[in-house]
């Protein structure tokens, strides 16, 4: 016995809906994970650069939480606002718009586990869209406390 | 042709389903569960809640307190909130008090979130000073379990399986003196 047309399509729609939902979850959860590894820099690598004094120091910008920045941040880094918000992204774009496009810039956050950070990818995307070619994102696997402060790397407090 | 498309969709669906399952387990498993390093008194604080009233932590002495540092922009934090709401409902009568300390930059998104999710525990606006009191809140979520005697009994950094919280809360509720009403 054949099913009426609508009932025949229902299983396909259900399956398709499930797949679409799963794909959306995938995209959202792995935002930071979508940043190519060639655009990442590890804490060890950054510390080496900062200590060497040989090459140009990067412009370091924290694109996450102000409360977290106040407690601890990389010395010399600037706070710009969460890049997951429109205001934060605009502030970032304004900060860098007059800079040469080959300026060495390091973006970081450290608010949450890497896979869940809502800030670094929008910031990275924005700078690339503006034509910046020398941008690195600091890979912080867990959070700034565990992956930077607890490792004994240099820290500054306050605004 | 139709069978081939169906098989393909079914395969994608299975892979996506497995991914979701694994992701949930990884988030639930927790990034790091630290040992209780010291049974120190939980640092006291007085912070404004979402109505502007001051909430003092020490007024909850005698209760088991779960102090949760979170933020509305923190994905794993948001996932924990509905589970905390359930815990609060389940164990309030036995002396559990959950307190959320939001590390958002302002109260407006927190108020909206609290209303939307019908949060049944007080939420205060945390700040850098409070974070420093608790050894530095340098990533979210971070939760502290505080015994009836006001001492820190557990600290959890990163997303933590709710069953871990529940087990520890039950143990703490069973031990120590019966709770007394908080001064307000």
Q: In words, what does this structure look like?
A:
The complex is a heterodimer of chains A (159) and B (184). Chain A has 159 residues and is an alpha/beta fold. Chain A is built from 6 helices and 5 strands; from the N terminus they run αβαβαβαβαβα. Chain B contains 5 helices and 8 strands; from the N terminus they run αββββαβαβαββα. Chain B has a 6-stranded mixed sheet with strand order 1-8-7-4-5-6, covered by helices on one side. Chain B has a two-stranded antiparallel sheet with strand order 2-3. The termini of chain B are far apart. Chains A and B meet through helix 1, helix 3 and helix 6 of A and helix 1, helix 2 and helix 4 of B.
The strand order across the widest sheet of chain A is: 1-5-4-2-3
Rg over C-alpha atoms of chain B, rounded to the nearest angstrom: 19 Å
The overall number of domains of chain A is 1
Count of runs of 4 or more consecutive helical residues of chain A:
6
| CATH architecture assignment of chain A | 3-Layer(aba) Sandwich
- How far the N terminus sits from the C terminus of chain A, by CA atoms, comes to 73 Å
Number of strands of chain B: 8
First-to-last CA distance of chain B: 70 Å
Mean pLDDT over all positions of chain B: 84
Features:
heterodimer; A: 159 residues; alpha/beta; Oxidized Rhodanese, domain 1; five-stranded parallel sheet; 6 helices; 5 strands; 10% strand; elongated; B: 184 residues; Glutaredoxin; 2 domains; six-stranded mixed sheet; two-stranded antiparallel sheet; 5 helices; 8 strands; globular; disordered C terminus
């Amino acid at each position: 016995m054949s099913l009426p047309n609508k009932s025949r399509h229902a299983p396909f729609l259900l399956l398709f809906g499930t797949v679409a939902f799963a794909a959306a979850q995938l995209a959202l959860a792995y935002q930071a994970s979508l940043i190519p590894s060639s655009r990442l820099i590890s804490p060890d690598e950054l510390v080496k650069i900062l200590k060497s004094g040989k090459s140009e120091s990067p412009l370091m910008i924290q694109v996450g939480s102000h409360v977290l920045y106040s407690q601890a941040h990389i010395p010399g880094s600037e706070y710009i606002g969460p890049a997951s918000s429109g205001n934060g992204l605009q502030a970032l774009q304004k900060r860098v718009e007059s800079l040469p496009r080959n300026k060495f810039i390091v973006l970081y956050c450290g608010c949450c586990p890497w896979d869940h950070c809502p800030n670094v990818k929008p910031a990275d995307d924005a700078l690339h869209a503006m034509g910046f070619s020398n941008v690195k994102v600091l890979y912080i696997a867990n959070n700034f406390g565990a992956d930077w402060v607890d490792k004994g790397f240099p820290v500054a407090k306050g605004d | 042709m139709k069978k081939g498309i169906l098989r393909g969709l079914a395969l994608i669906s299975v892979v996506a389903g497995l991914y979701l399952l694994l992701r949930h387990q990884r988030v639930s498993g927790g990034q790091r569960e630290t040992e209780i390093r010291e049974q120190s008194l939980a640092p006291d604080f007085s912070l404004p809640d979402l109505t502007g009233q001051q909430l003092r932590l020490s007024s909850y002495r005698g209760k088991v307190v779960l102090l949760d540092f979170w933020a509305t922009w923190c994905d794993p934090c948001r996932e924990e909130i509905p589970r905390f709401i359930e815990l609060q409902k389940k164990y309030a009568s036995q002396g559990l008090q959950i307190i959320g300390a939001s590390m958002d930059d302002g109260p407006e998104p927190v108020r909206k979130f609290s209303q939307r999710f019908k949060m049944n525990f007080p939420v205060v606006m945390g700040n850098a000073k409070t974070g420093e009191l608790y050894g530095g809140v340098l990533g979210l979520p971070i939760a502290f379990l505080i015994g009836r005697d006001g001492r820190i009994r557990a600290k959890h950094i990163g997303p933590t399986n709710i069953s871990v919280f529940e087990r520890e809360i039950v143990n703490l509720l069973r031990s120590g003196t019966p709770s007394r009403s908080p001064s307000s």
